[in-house]
Task: structure prediction
Amino acid sequence: MKTIQIKGAPYIVAPEVLSEIVTLREKVGDLNDEVEQHASTVRQQQKVIEKLEQRVAFLNCLEACGVDNWVGYEDARDMMEGE
Result:
């Protein structure tokens, strides 16, 4: 038997239980790393989305100011459509 501390409290555990605790702690650590990696990816994607939303807002402002009546507007639309 071995005494271990869990959140400051002493517990007496059998060696096989201690082994399982160590394994579970490692798994929790791995899961925490994986969660952080996903969170990082989400933060990066949020930045991209914010930039795209800003571009859409700007394009909406251009359209509201009549950009669709400007010279070259149809050419730009054709370029977007691959013509």
User: Anything to note?
Assistant: The longest helix spans residues 15-64. The two ends are 78 Å apart (CA to CA).
